[in-house]
């Protein structure tokens, strides 16, 4: 199957599930600060790995995953309603920690550059 088609289907699944999380899922466990970072649909269209990012504590992330797992059947049904394809992919939710890692690395870079700047200023004062 063409990779272009898979990419389009992945993007459509991302839109559908994003809308469901924002407007239709009423589970209190699902954090309102949940976003979908990426969706990967397998070539046979059987599974859709949905990477989510949750802004909040580890407990909120855990609860959001549990809430989404609980709503998996409803989410799959809605994907099937909105996508006219032979097989409706089964959603698999994964926590995306790339944003957290990016923030952590950014903080490390800031810390190192600040320390370098301080050393530079010390050297300037000594001369």
Automatic annotation (TrEMBL):
Would you kindly state one Gene Ontology biological process term found in this protein's UniProt entry? Answer: maturation of SSU-rRNA
Q: InterPro entries per the record?
A: KH_dom-like_a/b, RbfA, RbfA_dom_sf
Which keywords fit this entry according to its UniProt record?
A: Cytoplasm, Ribosome biogenesis
Q: Does the keyword Cytoplasm apply?
A: yes
Q: Which GO terms describe its molecular function?
A: ribosomal small subunit binding
Record's GO cellular component terms: cytosol
Reading the lineage from the top rank, the first entry is Bacteria
Question: According to its UniProt record, where is this protein located?
Answer: Cytoplasm
Gene3D superfamilies listed in its UniProt record: 3.30.300.20
Q: Does the keyword Cytoplasm apply?
A: yes
The family assignment reads:
Belongs to the RbfA family.
Q: Mind telling me which NCBIfam families this protein's record contains?
A: rbfA (TIGR00082)
Subunit and interaction comment: Monomer. Binds 30S ribosomal subunits, but not 50S ribosomal subunits or 70S ribosomes.
**PANTHER family according to UniProt:** RIBOSOME-BINDING FACTOR A, CHLOROPLASTIC-RELATED
Role according to the record: One of several proteins that assist in the late maturation steps of the functional core of the 30S ribosomal subunit. Associates with free 30S ribosomal subunits (but not with 30S subunits that are part of 70S ribosomes or polysomes). Required for efficient processing of 16S rRNA. May interact with the 5'-terminal helix region of 16S rRNA.
Q: What is this protein called?
A: Ribosome-binding factor A
Gene that this polypeptide is encoded by: rbfA
């Amino acid at each position: 199957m063409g990779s272009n088609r898979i990419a389009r289907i992945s993007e459509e699944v991302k839109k559908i599930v994003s809308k469901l999380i924002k407007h239709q899922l009423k589970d209190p466990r699902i954090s309102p600060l949940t976003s979908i970072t990426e969706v990967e649909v397998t070539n046979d269209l059987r599974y859709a790995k949905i990477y989510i990012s949750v802004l909040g504590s580890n407990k909120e992330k855990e609860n959001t995953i549990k809430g989404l797992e609980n709503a998996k059947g409803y989410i799959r049904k809605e994907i099937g309603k909105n996508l006219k394809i032979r097989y409706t992919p089964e959603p698999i939710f994964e926590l995306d920690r790339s944003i957290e890692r990016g923030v952590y690395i950014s903080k490390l870079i800031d810390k190192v550059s600040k320390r370098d700047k301080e050393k530079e200023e010390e050297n300037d004062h000594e001369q």
